[in-house]
Specification:
Radius of gyration: 15 Å
Number of domains: 1
Mean pLDDT: 96
Structural class: alpha+beta
CATH topology: Alpha-D-Glucose-1,6-Bisphosphate, Chain A, domain 4
Number of strands: 7
Strand order of the largest sheet: 1-7-6-5-4-3-2
C-alpha cells in the first residue's frame, strides 16, 4: 500500500535538501510523535548503503519491542531525492522516498512510502498518513524559522 503526502515549504530547495540529508533533521521533525534510541550516534549525513538500527519510541514514552532498521538506498543530489529501505516488527517493507523540488516562493517537499505489513498494512498505512502529515507540519515550522533567521 502506498502513502503519499506533499507540502509547500517557504524555504529554498537547496536549504531543505541540505537538511533532509542530516539524520538529526529526521529526529527533529519526528519529535513529539516518534523518538529514536541512540539518535545521538546517528551519522552526520545519510550516505548510500548506510544502515541505522534503532528502537522506536512512540510519543517518546512507548517503546517498540522491535529494532527498526533503516538503510539509505539512494541519495540523488541532482534530483534532490533520498530513498530508504526500512523494516522492523510487523512491518516487512517501509520504503520511503523524500523529494524536494524548487517552485516559486520556496519548494515542494514530499514523502512517498510503500508499506507492507500483512493483515496490519491498512492500520500501518493510516498511522503513516498521520505521522507524515505531522512531520510536514514540523517541516513547515522549520522553514519558517529558517526564513526568519535569514532576515
Amino acid at each position: 500500500m502506498r502513502c503519499f503526502v506533499q507540502t509547500h515549504l517557504n524555504a529554498p530547495a537547496d536549504a531543505v535538501w541540505a537538511a533532509v540529508k542530516k539524520p538529526q533533521t529526521l529526529v527533529h521533525v519526528a519529535r513529539g510523535f516518534l523518538g529514536f534510541s541512540g539518535a545521538d550516534r546517528f551519522p552526520p549525513e545519510w550516505q548510500v548503503g548506510m544502515t541505522v538500527r534503532t528502537r522506536l519510541w512512540f510519543f517518546h514514552v512507548l517503546p517498540a519491542w522491535w529494532t527498526h532498521t533503516l538503510t539509505a538506498a539512494r541519495v540523488d543530489e541532482d534530483q534532490r531525492e533520498i530513498a530508504s529501505r526500512e523494516y522492523g516488527g510487523f512491518i516487512r517493507v517501509w520504503n520511503h522516498t523524500i523529494r524536494v523540488a524548487p517552485v516559486p516562493g520556496g519548494c515542494t517537499y514530499s514523502d512517498e512510502i510503500e508499506i507492507e505489513a500483512g493483515v496490519l498494512t491498512v492500520f500501518i498505512w493510516l498511522y503513516a498518513n498521520i505521522f507524515y502529515r505531522y512531520r510536514q507540519m514540523r517541516w513547515r515550522r522549520w522553514a519558517k524559522v529558517y526564513e526568519e533567521a535569514k532576515k
